[in-house]
Amino acid sequence: MATKQTKRRSLLGSKLSSAASNPSSAPAEDIASNSEKSGNASHRAFAKLKRFFDRSTIDTEIDEIQDLSDTDLKPLKDFNEVVANYPKVHPYPQVVLGIFTNISQSFVNQANVDKGISSLFDTIKRVYEFLAEEDTPKKMINKKVTVDTSAKPSWYTYTRPVPEPTADTPPKITLDTSATAALDTLAKIAQVTSDSTQFIRNYSTTKHFWKRTGKDTLSETQTIVNACAKTLDGLMQQYREPKEDDAENAEIQINTYRGLGDVSLEGLACADGAGLFDSRRCLDGTRTDVLTEIVSWVYNTNEDVPRILWLNGQDGAGKSTIAHTIVRWFTDAGGLGACFCFARDRLVERREERIFTTIARDLAESDLAFRRALADAISKDPSLKTTYDVTLQWQRLILEPLSKVSGRVVGNVVVLIDDLDESGPDTSRSHILSLFTSAAAVHLPANLRILLTSRPLPDIEPVLRAVSHVKVISLDELLEESARDITFWVQQDLCRARDIGNTDIQMLVERANGAFEWARLACDYIKPNRPGQTAWERWEELMALESKGRRTLLDAVHEQVLDGIIPNDRLTVSRFQSVMKQVMSAKKPMTIDALNVQRKQFPNEEDLYDVGIIVEFMRTLLVGIHNRSSPVRLRHGSFYDCVTDPERSPTYFVCPPSELR
Known about the structure:
This protein is an alpha/beta fold.
């Protein structure tokens, strides 16, 4: 699938491969509780004996705990003090440094570790000593580039006379190549450090499992501690002396020790392909104000900070791109997060019925403590695996496991629910909205952050704006910032269109009116070298587009793009309509090869053709067509709305939505 699920795993790897499936791993409290309920005298006697040994074990554990001295914690405390004064010039460093702050604060708050893994804490302490070397992160942050967005590249020459604007566009602050590479390495260090911290926090449970299964606790511990130290030392060396092939090798080292697998979640009903999209990333230097505001909200430690943030805006405003950028940065740096995406072309899947089972699974794949708490809830009530009751899912699979592990999760948990407006009819999301706007939502766990994105539809906007515990950011109210960012993006994209000047770009930006998707489609239409037509002539065609009735400017540019792809003859248009209906009505996204296999079953001989003759020319509107083995999906939901409404797309109307469900 084209979406890339969050790949973060614990460093425990296969060392904890079968804890939950082993009957002997049942909690002692359950054994005692069950024996007392049985009424059998011998069972009660056994329970008393078991409790005696449990108390003895606790006493032994106390003897194995090592308090952390002020000297031990000094590098971590110093980091917390210094990083608070770092300039917030770019949101990506804020995310990475925020993870390091959460880790250091967790050790300062706990101030002790198990003696068996004290050497792993020493490795983490070395990481913070490394961060203090000549202000490592601060020095990296200062490697920024100020881009003059008012000028074309020095090699640029216009092919026609173009009057240039007198007012300069404000410059953009971006990170240079070396700074981005350094940040990526630092994010990996944060990720492995976070995993190491999680191992330390869960070590008591892990150690008991090893003992019950007859494993050599010392050997197992040392293997993991050595692996963590080797990986972190390698990454810190890579940061100091970067080499071209270091990034790939470091990733392999990290992945070697990632994988939970010790607790089975088999049978949990989840939605496929609902995770993060790699293609949804903000261009560096754009959306920095809103990205910085959301990152600050994620790391805000005030008790009264809203736990829910609603990012809204018109179709194509860039809501999903902003949200996916934040969550990808956060999870890649070791933060605990999950993403659930709705999609207009996936309504047949009824994703809303599996929203919190999917989110719970994704959180469990990234955090061992949460995974065990989730498995415990499911083992007590197996019906939770397949329930469609979203309220029950929310309470039993998200809130209850989070409350049980609140002291063992490092930092905040970030959950993205993207494109809520694309869930289907109002009734498909009414229960979800009621959960987030209820009085109980005011008291959500302090470490939980829920990021919602949607258009401001009539059933969504009033209820979310009516409650004080939901923070609201409207991109439609940030049109000036959007215009600056679209200008920067268009200039980068059309830098080789020699007859498009800055005045033309500004007119293009004005027509976009804050819609990044309109600007993207417009640039893709202008760029191709079509015979007998200049880029400026294609620009003129876009400037002539108008909205009418339900037909928006975004619909108009979709039709204009299709005009450049699909020859306007009856045969080609009918084939386009047939293939798009097949793509949009599939229960799950299908590859080109799978679509062709399915098409062989069509009864009419005129339908037996390779779908590639249509989809392979639609790179502007579809994803997954770069090879024949990737799932084909719509690039943006606005295209679905356009071609399923005859008034919005008279020429390329495919069918009404009811025929796709």
